[in-house]
Amino acid sequence: MIPEDLRYTAKHEWLAPTDAGTFKVGITDYAQDELGGIVFVQLPEVGTTVQAGDAFGEVESTKSVSEIYAPVSGEVVAVNSALDTAAEVINDDPYGAGWIVELKADDPAAVEALLDAAAYRELTASS
């Protein structure tokens, strides 16, 4: 499942605009499926500044540990603290309740440079 209205990275993060002008970020359905049962998420602190492409957290699963990368540069304005006690929600609902952070982008236009659903579908089809 690849929602049409989101933007994606080649490292399998998604980005969705919010009504507040920020962007929710999570890992894709493809990523959570590859990871298997997610048991822990290391979240950054609110107020953390991130640079596009840099790791800002980790997802630990029964198979491995994977870093989570910032799709755009900006500031973390919220974290999904529900993941502290229920990380597996990422497996169940990666594009909804499984969001990881909310970012205030330094340059909202940078989002347009990310992959659209068709490009992400093509990327994952070749994996």
Strand order of the largest sheet: 1-2-3-9-8-5
Could you say how many structural domains there are in total?
1
Name of the CATH class: Mainly Beta
H and E order: EEEHEEEEEHEH
Overall pLDDT: 96
Poorly predicted tracts of residues: none
- Main sheet record: 6 strands, antiparallel
Total helical segments: 3
The CATH superfamily title: RNA polymerase II/Efflux pump adaptor protein, barrel-sandwich hybrid domain
Report the sheet-strand fraction. 25-35%
Radius of gyration using CA atoms only: 13 Å
CATH architecture: Beta Barrel
Helix % is: 10-25%
CATH topology: OB fold (Dihydrolipoamide Acetyltransferase, E2P)
Number of strands: 9
Q: Would you give an account of this structure?
A:
The chain has helices at residues 29-35, 89-92, 117-125, and strands at residues 7-8, 13-17, 23-27, 38-42, 49-50, 55-61, 65-69, 74-79, 101-105. It contains three helices and nine strands. The chain has one domain: OB fold (Dihydrolipoamide Acetyltransferase, E2P) (Beta Barrel). It has a six-stranded antiparallel beta sheet with strand order 1-2-3-9-8-5. A three-stranded antiparallel beta sheet has the order 4-6-7. By secondary structure, the protein is α+β, with helices and mostly antiparallel strands. A hairpin with a 5-residue loop joins β2 and β3. 37% of the residues are buried.
